[in-house]
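Input record (one chain):
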Amino acid sequence: MTEHAKLRLEFAFVNVMNHLNLGNPDLKITNVNNPSQGLCGFGCISTAQGLFSFSGSARQGQFDARIDF
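The corresponding structure, as predicted from the sequence alone:
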């Protein structure tokens, strides 16, 4: 009786280049957009997505190893 073993390695990365992911723009049409007064209105993006949100997270990597026999 003989057995064969296989080693399987997997690597998965999210946001490898560590790019900034901007937040959603302001969608209220009634908000005034006047940068000289410090007002950021319709269409303005003033935030970045959070560290722990799925699509806006920081660089992450995962390594898996599996032996089948």
